[in-house]
Amino acid sequence: MGKKWTLEALDAKVIIFKKKRRKNYRRTKGHRQELTRLRITDIQGIEKPEIPDVGKSEKAALKKPQKVAVAA
């Protein structure tokens, strides 16, 4: 398996806010999760599937489904 680069950073801050109404009770906490990002360039041992070439007329037929009349 080939990896291109690694980035270790902190995720966006999540704010936790607690409040009890009419009692002047407010608490705020923040949390930032550690984050690791990898870019995978290829995975060995798996063959890539072959994608058949579809002509223009076949693409048009696939995009528009035919309507079926329903008896009421």
Automatic annotation (TrEMBL):
Task: Supply the InterPro entries for this chain.
Answer: bL21-like (IPR028909), bL21-like_sf (IPR036164), Ribosomal_bL21_CS (IPR018258)
GO terms, molecular function: RNA binding; structural constituent of ribosome
Q: What GO CC annotations are associated with the protein?
A: cytoplasm; ribosome
Pfam families, A to Z: Ribosomal_L21p
Q: What top-level branch of life does the organism fall under? A: Eukaryota
Q: Which GO terms describe its biological process?
A: translation
Q: Which family does it belong to?
A: Belongs to the bacterial ribosomal protein bL21 family.
Query: By what name is this protein known?
Result: Large ribosomal subunit protein bL21m
Source species of the chain = Vitis vinifera
Taxonomic classification, please? Eukaryota, Viridiplantae, Streptophyta, Embryophyta, Tracheophyta
